[in-house]
Structures
1.
Amino acid sequence: MPIGEIETHPYLHQGQINRATKLILGSFPVYECTNQDNLIKQENRHDEGTVRFFYGSIDSKFWQFYRDIIDNTILLPPNPNLIIQSLTQRQIAISDTIISCERHDFSSLDSKLIRKTYNINGIQTLINNGVRKILCTSKGVLNDLENKIICHGNLPFGQSNNLLGHIFQNNFINVIGGNNNQIINPIAKVFVINNFQVTALAIPSPGSPQRQLAKFGFDGQDWRNYADSYFFNAFNWLNE
């Protein structure tokens, strides 16, 4: 990967679902999926089975959870056209917080992304057009949603209501048998924007949730059962 290469997001427009009331929100695609496309990316996609779409990495289990919990008719590996149809039927938009950035190494970690341009207008437009629930695919995405998209600047788009967010988080963690005292950085936020509220909920990494579960309220022995319960309740909440 060339030093100083600026990557851009190639398919944000696909996720701008008309009349969406819910939103799946990530950060930025893996290297193989961004623009400018090149031979290295094409060869990597071919060798790894990566699909040029949201959560198209072979390591991501996001669409497996979506299939198992929300729509068992979609295919794996993900077919973008079928997924867009499914999302449209359920009024779920899909987007990322970053339009363009530079990446250190080939890492997909958010911490390796610099010189970021945020998708402020795209996400604010979805909210203005009716999005009231946002499923964030990491705590980092939730943090950027708050600090870079909604509460950013001298004239912020909206404000975070810490009390409402705390109540929502406590209820969610209690339902799945977690321990709220384990959670230092919130897993949920409620934003007040004009005369309405937008609730955002973060999930652990679908690829390796066991490494993060303590930060999401887990203090037991059976991490797999807790992770399954977390994803099941989070996806069901989004789809309600």
2.
Amino acid sequence: MVSFRRLLLVAFLLIAALLGATALRAVAVLEQLMAQSADAASRAVALNGAAQGLAARTAGMERAARQSLVLNDAVLRRRFDEELRLARAALQDMQNAGLQGTEPARWREQVEDIERLLAGPPDTALDRERQVAAQFRELDAVNGSVVAEMQRLIEQRNRALRDQLEAERAGLMRLVLAAITLAVLLAIAFGLWLARPFKRLEHAIVGLGENRLAEPINIPGPSDVRGVSQQLEWLRLRLTELEADKARFLRHVSHELKTPLAALREGVALLRDGVPGELSGGQKEVVRILHQNTLALQGHIEALLQFNAAAFDARRLQRRRADLLALLREQVEAQRLQWQARELRVEVEGERLTAPVDTEKLGTAFANLLSNAIRFSPRGACVRVRLATTPAAITVDVEDEGPGVAEADRARVFEPFFRGTRQPEDAVRGSGIGLSIVQEYVAAHGGRVTLLDQPRGSHFRIELPHAT
């Protein structure tokens, strides 16, 4: 199995190769376009030079031809022939470069007429000189047409080059955009694919932190991620063993303490009743203190047993479809004496909702939240219990108008045996396991309980999934 680092390196190299190939393609296209532009420029210069050379050779031909006729000079005639040869070469270069149309043929025909006039007898030289001059004027017109045709050819090639440049630019832009888009998509795909195992690792770690030890940890992915997954599974099994050892220890210690505690309570009761003999005032005070402490110790032991039993029983649910609103009203009615004694109003709101739940354990969770709200509410206040449903879950809200939970205590409010700093003065001090039992029973149903923010009092919310 490939490791995460190798996969990350492969993803980086793949994206880099894609962008690098695009950059190399862009450089190659730019070099090709620059070469074509330079070649087109050199051809344009050569064509302009050939056109100008043709005009210059024609002027030289005219001077040599007319002077040779007037002076009957063979040297001037040979000069004419040389200029004519160079002019024909320039015209041929222009044709090789792409010059088309009838102008080259007209130019040659015109030159042939001039050559015939030059080949006449000496006695008609002056008359032929005038005719040659007329022929060269016509040849100049043909030269102008050749130059104009050359300019059109150069312009046409310039337009073709510009069109090619624009097409290559557009194609290169599309290629770059496609490469960037593909690189982004690859980065997103690799990111999501590589981030998925880490999200699962995070979920597994959070589950261990929240004591969800019944879920096995098996996270597929790269070899190093699977190695971490195996370590977390080992940690889960180890924590499960420690949790079981802790539960056994608490049960054994609690039961072992109950027997001597019962004997101690019985002895204190005998002393208090004066069975061994009449006690003095100081002795009675000592007996009273012992009696109070034995009762407190018994309460702590029973709370410890209760919490241990709740943590064990939370894993054994006996579900049946129940009316949650009726279950809430039942818990409110069961504590009527408590809230009436404190002159409280308890309002239950919501519509009838049914769900498959363990009514005994979920009823205990509702009762503990309600008891907590009653205990912390001032006299004459109102406790609100609201049942509702959302697309995500079924919610049960319990709100009171008491002092609320101190900011420093909010993170620990669901810890076993934790009692916050804001305790009611006119109520018996609690054991600190009520909210812990609520969390255990609600988590067993696949839900969660949270403490919400509000300016006054406490607001606890139970969220139960629809598919419980």
3.
Amino acid sequence: MRLGIMQPYFFPYLGHFGLIANTDRWIVFDVTQYTPRTWMNRNRVLHPTEGWNYVTVPLANSSTQIRIHEARIADPRAAARSIEGKLSHYRRKAPHYETVRRLVAGTFAAAGDSLVELDVQGLQAVCRYLDIPLRLEVCSRMGLALPQHLEPGDWALEICTQLGADAYLNPASGRALFDPQRYAGRGVALQFLEVGEFRYDTGPYPFEPGLSILDVMLWNSPQQIRDALELVCRCVPAL
């Protein structure tokens, strides 16, 4: 079983779904300290004039004093309206605007005030839309006996050991955090996903790389996105 473990992110970039597409089981890692101003409650879409623009979900308790799973949205309805407003300039330009608008609205409607649940609902909605298999579990709800203090690269190893995974896949950008020998010592093959750039037509706007999956979906069909994942994502061994 190849395991993927990542913090909950708000409609993350295409490479996040490349990880999901290349794993057998996906763990939303929400048991450590919350870090404000990260991808957990915000992402980027095209700006109506140039460059990119943040879409953000304001929190009622954004603080390093809470665990990720304790984060609460200040006003879910207001956040949903704000994000729809920041997507509205796509209305007459992006071919899949209405589909994406409904997907975002449905995600907020299903999530309540939990940031983790919002991010989970977003992952599930996108994977359903793209027809990407997703076997997802939320770490704080699994009853795992995890040590209180671990190095960043060791959380995944501990979870892999407890769940009996024989392979772990991480973004290649995080290579420096992991010791392949420690993973091999527990019978876990450490692997990394390299993600190339996917360029696509954004109509009247200049293309911006690395934006939220929302931007990708606004301009591309599910089949085009699945084809892109095949082209730009590559799993490589750690050693």
